[in-house]
Amino acid sequence: MYGPTTPSAFSQWAGLPARSGARAFWAIASELMPVATPIGEAWMLARDEEAARAPATPPAPARLLPSGDPFLLRQGADRALLVPDAAQRSALGPTRAWPGGVLLKGELAGTWRRSGATVAVEPWRGLADSEREAIAAEVPALPLAGPLKVQWVGPAAP
Question: Do 93 and 17 fall within a single domain?
């Protein structure tokens, strides 16, 4: 499920010029339904309504989203809604290599990068021992070869 979204946000996400993205978006207008979001009017696939209204399941203690994950590629107001702090938003943006995102109980809480056998995790805030343990437990699940070690970096690192 990608949405709710707007033609403009869809165009940015898909890497299309605004006019082409809007044309592609509205080509499926009969499958869309309008929805109100905290940042304004948007649309979603009508077939996703039941899933969107379903009670939320408890989020995983930690997840490491890969670089380029659609959740991390949101732009503009969509990205501001996910990550209110502007400095943290820019940490997710393109640099030499885009970082992955660290989710803690469903909330973005930092970034991660891999270099060789090291997964460098940069939390955006101090972490409880249980949160660090949950992140470290996710590292072996990454589809990367060989044993990996976690390195905590940045001002909020332990």
Answer: no
121 and 67 both lie in a single domain: yes
Calculate helix-pair angle for 7-14, 18-26, nearest 10 degrees.
Answer: 110
Instruction: Quote the pTM value.
Output: 0.72
The answer to whether position 158 is within a domain reads no
For the chain of 158 residues, list the mean pLDDT of each consecutive stretch of 10. Answer: 82 88 95 91 93 90 86 72 77 70 92 91 94 94 83 82
Amino acid at 125: R
Do 32 and 4 form a contact (C-beta atoms < 8 A)? no
Spatial distance between the Cα atoms of 53 and 48, rounded to a whole number of angstroms: 9
Cα-based distances in Å from 151 to 6, 115, 124, 128, 140: 38, 10, 15, 16, 14
Q: Tell me: do 70 and 115 sit in the same domain.
A: yes
Helix (H, G, I), strand (E, B) or coil at 119: strand
Bond preceding residue 94 cis, omega within 30 of 0: no
Question: Does residue 157 form part of some domain?
Answer: no
Beta-bridge partners for 33: 44
What is the domain extent for residue 23? 7-53
Q: Say whether both 39 and 100 belong to one domain.
A: no
